[in-house]
Amino acid sequence: MVLTKKIHNFSAGPAILPQEVLKEAAEGILDFTKGLSILEISHRSKEFEAVLEEAKSLVKELLGVPDGYSILFLHGGARLQFVMAPLNQLTVNGYAAYVNTGTWATGAIKEAKIIGKVNVIASSEDKKFTYIPKGFTIPADADYLHLTSNNTVYGTQYRQLLESPVPVICDMSSDIMSRKINVSKFALIYAGAQKNMGPAGTTLVIIKNDFIKDPGRTVPTMMSYKIHVENNSLYNTPSVYAIFVCMLTMRWLKKVGGVEYIEKKNREKADYLYAEVDRNPLFRGVTVKEDRSVMNATFVLSKPELETTFNQMASEAGLSGIKGHRSVGGYRASLYNALPFESVKALVEVMQEFERKKG
Amino acid sequence: MVLTKKIHNFSAGPAILPQEVLKEAAEGILDFTKGLSILEISHRSKEFEAVLEEAKSLVKELLGVPDGYSILFLHGGARLQFVMAPLNQLTVNGYAAYVNTGTWATGAIKEAKIIGKVNVIASSEDKKFTYIPKGFTIPADADYLHLTSNNTVYGTQYRQLLESPVPVICDMSSDIMSRKINVSKFALIYAGAQKNMGPAGTTLVIIKNDFIKDPGRTVPTMMSYKIHVENNSLYNTPSVYAIFVCMLTMRWLKKVGGVEYIEKKNREKADYLYAEVDRNPLFRGVTVKEDRSVMNATFVLSKPELETTFNQMASEAGLSGIKGHRSVGGYRASLYNALPFESVKALVEVMQEFERKKG
Fold this sequence. Notes:
2 copies of one chain form a homodimer. Chain A is α/β, with parallel strands linked by helices. Chain A has 2 domains: 21-255, Aspartate Aminotransferase, domain 2, CATH 3.40.640; 257-358, Alpha-Beta Complex (Aspartate Aminotransferase, domain 1). Chain A is 36% helix and 16% strand. Chain A has helices spanning 19-30, 46-63, 77-89, 103-115, 225-230, 240-256, 258-279, 307-316, 341-358; strands spanning 8-9, 69-74, 95-100, 117-123, 145-148, 150-151, 156-157, 168-171, 188-192, 203-208, 283-285, 296-301, 319-320, 331-334. The longest helix of chain A is centred in the C-terminal third of the chain and has 22 residues, at 258-279. The interface between A and B is large, with 66 and 66 residues.
C-alpha cells in the first residue's frame, strides 16, 4: 500500500491538516510579504487584514452564512466560549436551557452556572452519554438553548436539527465545516479551530447581530461579543498565524468541492469504518447507532485482554491517535475533513488482520 | 550596505523574530516528528509536552525564576490578563492599587474596575503619559500593586524597580526577556508573546504559587490561575504553535548569550537612536529622557510639514513599521531583541540624509 505519509493521523485534535496546506503554511513563515514572515507583521497591516477578510469571506461562503451575522476569530478556545456565551447572553434575571451530551456540554453547563441560572433540560448522562437525547421540550422562556453538535469524547452527534422556540447557541468545535448546516437556525455558533478548520490557537464565532443584547451585567471588554464585533476581531492582537492557516485550510476545502463534497467524503469514511466495527466480532461500537458521530468513531475490543496485541499491530501499521479519550478508554478514530480515505482503509485492514490472527 | 533582509522591521508587535528561528519554525510545520507537522499533533502527545517543558525551563533559566513560581502559557493575550488578574487576585472586600502609565495601564484599570475596587495611586496622564510617575506611596493594605513595565504606545519604561509593601503584578508584554529582572520581587508577571518572545497567540504568565488565594468569588474555570497551574497549561488545548515558536526564540536567546547579553545589545541600539533624535534638529523625542523606553523609541518631526518627505525616504530605505501608534501619531521605532543593530543604523542614516536634504 502506498501511503501519502508514514503516519495515519487519527488524532482527535489538534488534528490532521491537508498536506498542501502545510506547505503553504510553511511558506508563510519564511516569506509572507516582501520577505517578511507572517509571524512578524502587524495585525493591523493591510496584508494581515486581507488574510482576515478572506478567512471571514470563506466562512461565509462555505457555510452559507446569511446577512445579519458577524464572523469573529477569537482567542481562548471553545472553553472560553463556555464563559463568554452566558456572560453575554444569559440575562441576570433569566435562565438558559442546556442539553448535556457529554464532557464538553458538561463543561459548558458548569461555567454557565457560575454566571447565572441554568436549566439542564435533557441529558444522556444516565447511559454514559452514548446517545443524543430526543423528544424533550425546549422551554419558550429561556434566554437561549445551548447544544454541543458533536461529542468528540463519546462519539455521538446530532444528526437532525432541532426546531427551537428560543435562540440556539451551538458548540460546533468538532464538526464545523464537516457538513452542511443551516446557519439561520442558530443565534451563535462557536468552534475551536483545531479539528476541521486549522491549528489550535483560534476560535471561530458566528453570531447573529441582533442576538447581541445587554444581559444586565458589565461584561469585561475582552469577553464582550459586542466589542469584538465592533472591532472586527482586532480589539486586541489576534492569533495571527492560526487565522492564516484557517484561511489556507478553508481555501483548500473550497477547492476540493466545499462542505457538500466533504460531507459526502466524511460519510463514506465513517460508513466504511462503522461497517467493520459492526461486522468484526472482535470489535463493538459504544454508542447508539442512529447517533453515531461521523467525525469521531468510538469502539472497544470485545476481548479487552487482546488490547496489547491490537495496539501493537496498529502502531506497526502507522496508525496514530486511535486511543480513546483518557476519561473513557477504548478506541476513537477521528475522521476529520483532512483525513484521507486511505487512512480509514489502513485502519480497517489492521482490524481485519487482527481478526484473522485472534478471532 | 548589506542587508540581512530587504526590510528593516520596526513593527511594534507582532514584531521581528530571529531569522534562524523562522527557519526552524517552518521546518516544524513540515515535519516536526515522524513526518507529522507540529500543527497536527495532540497537545497531550509526549512530543508537545517536551516542547512545553523546554519552553518553561527556558523561561526559568533566562529570567532566573526562583522556586515557588509556576510558569504558564495561556490564551487570550495580555488583555485577557487585564481581567484574569483582578478576577483571581482582587478580593471582594479589598482593593487593588494601579499606576496609570498609558494605554495598556488604562485598559488594565478599566477591566479591574469591572471586577472590584481599584485605587489609581499614580498617573502620568496629566502630561500625556510622557513620563513614569515617581515618589508615590504604595498603600500597605492593597491586595496588590499593578504596573506596566514598558509602555509601547508612548515609549516610556520603568528603569528602576519599585520596592512595594504589597504583591506586585506587572504587565511586561513589551519588555519581557529584554533585560534582567528580579522575579522574586513580583507576585505575578504576564506578557503577550508577540514582542520579544515569539508570535502572537500565547501569553506568558509567571505566578508565585502562594500568591494564588481565594478572592471570595467563583472564578470561571478557564480564567482561574489555580486551574491552569494544576493542569500545567493543559486545561484546554493550548496555542501549540505559538508556544513552539516561543521555545525556539528562547533557545536562540540562550544561544546568543541570554538576557544579560541582549540587554546590552538593546541598550546599544536605543542609545544610538536616541543620540540621533537628540542631535538632529529635524527630530525631537516626546518623552522625559530618564524614562525613555529601550524597546520603543518615540519621536516626532520638528517640522511636521516634512512628514511626507521623511516617510518616503524611510520607505525607500526599507524601513517598515515606524509609524507611531494610531492614538498618538509621530514615529515609533521598536527595538525588540531580534532587531539587528544594522536596522537601527539604517534608520539613523535616513534621519541624517533627511537632515542633509531638508535641515
